[in-house]
Amino acid sequence: MWEYEHTAATVASPEAVWRLWADVPGWGAWNAEIEKVEIDGPFAAGSRITMTPPGDEPVVLEIVEMEENALFVDRMDAGDFTVTTVHRIEPLGDGRTRIVYRTEIDGPAADQVGPELGPAITGDFPDTVAALVRLAEGR
Questions:
Q1: DSSP readout, 20-80?
Q2: In sequence order, which residues have a C-beta less than 8 Å from that of residue 127 and are 6 or more positions away?
Q3: 56-90 per-position pLDDT tens digit
Q4: 43 φ, ψ to 5°?
Q5: Which end of the chain has fewer CB atoms surrounding its CB within 10 Å, N or C?
Q6: End-to-end CA distance of the chain
């Protein structure tokens, strides 16, 4: 298994972060690695998100778990490996919130695919989360 986690603290409320996550068509406002994004239903478990990175092929993710104002988990199933990303909001107290992005690549081909694909997927997490924080804080 390959794994990576990035966290950031913010004064934005969990609800402010959640509103940005729930607005899937608006993800491009804070994620520069998205050229196009669509969802095939509501922002809920079972829905599929199609994300197209700039100059790349579309990637289809299924929302596999969701808890409003707390977390959503998406998964890409590539057959011999899966890429699961957990997006979590953790209240820290004192009006602060931690945002967690955690990606795991698992399955029979994970040890082979993870070291190359993992950094390509997660390399923008610091910039993406920072932009999400700025927007959620209203800056």
A1: HHH-GGGGGGT-TT-SEEEESSSSSTT-EEEEE-TTS--EEEEEEEEETTTEEEEEEE-SS
A2: 32
A3: 899 999 999 999 999 999 999 999 999 999 999 99
A4: -75, 85
A5: C
A6: 37
